[in-house]
Specification:
Layout lengths: L2 E10 L7 H14 L3 E6 L3 E9 H12 L4 E11 L11 E4 L3 H10 L12 H12 L4
Parallel strand pairs: 2-5
Antiparallel strand pairs: 1-3, 1-4, 2-3
Helix pairs in contact: 3-4
The structure holds flavin mononucleotide (FMN).
Flavin mononucleotide binds next to helix 1, strand 3 and helix 2.
Protein name: Sensors of blue-light using FAD
Pfam families: BLUF (PF04940)
InterPro entries: Acylphosphatase-like_dom_sf, BLUF_domain
Length: 137
């Protein structure tokens, strides 16, 4: 079974209610059952998410996520086979907000502090998420 990493971004749907702790509980429950791990960054507007696990499992979860009306403008950045997970620790780690520390880390990888996923390359995004995930440990 191939190990796959999938990266996408999306925007919160302003016309739907969103309970982030509740969402995270569902992520953890489903993902751990399927040995899928990853990280979800939410800055109040954009979601940036990485899913890592078996190809079929990651694909099934992504299709469910993509059909979720709580977010819109869902853009798949990459999905590829990998040799190793970058985020093996969390069934779904949540990193929220853009505080001073996060901003500094963000500026290490991106030209301005504005999250503009269309101008973001996937490798820099993975580096950013890996750095902020240290805060979750
Ligand atoms: C931004 C975002 C990220 C999500 N991430 C996951 C996830 O990692 N795993 C998951 O199972 N569901 C995730 N969901 C929720 C799914 O869209 C869906 O509601 C859920 O999988 C349904 O699970 P249930 O049938 O157990 O209620 C996410 C939803 C949103 C809006």
């Amino acid at each position: 079974m191939n190990l796959t990493r999938l990266v996408y971004y999306s925007q919160r749907n302003p016309s739907m209610s969103l309970n982030v702790p509740e969402l995270l509980e569902v992520c953890k429950r489903n993902n751990s059952r399927m040995n899928v791990t990853g990280i979800l960054h939410f800055n109040g507007n954009y979601f940036l998410q990485v899913l890592e696990g078996g190809r079929a499992e990651v694909s099934a979860i992504y299709h469910r996520i993509a059909a979720d009306p709580r977010h819109i403008n869902i853009i798949l950045m990459s999905a590829s086979d990998v040799r190793e997970r970058i985020f093996p620790t969390w069934s779904m780690g949540l990193h929220e907000g853009m505080g001073e520390e996060t901003k500094k880390i963000f500026l290490r990888y991106f030209p301005s502090e504005n999250v503009n996923p269309e101008a973001i390359n996937v490798d820099s995004l993975l580096d950013f998420l890996q750095d902020v995930s240290a805060e979750l440990a």
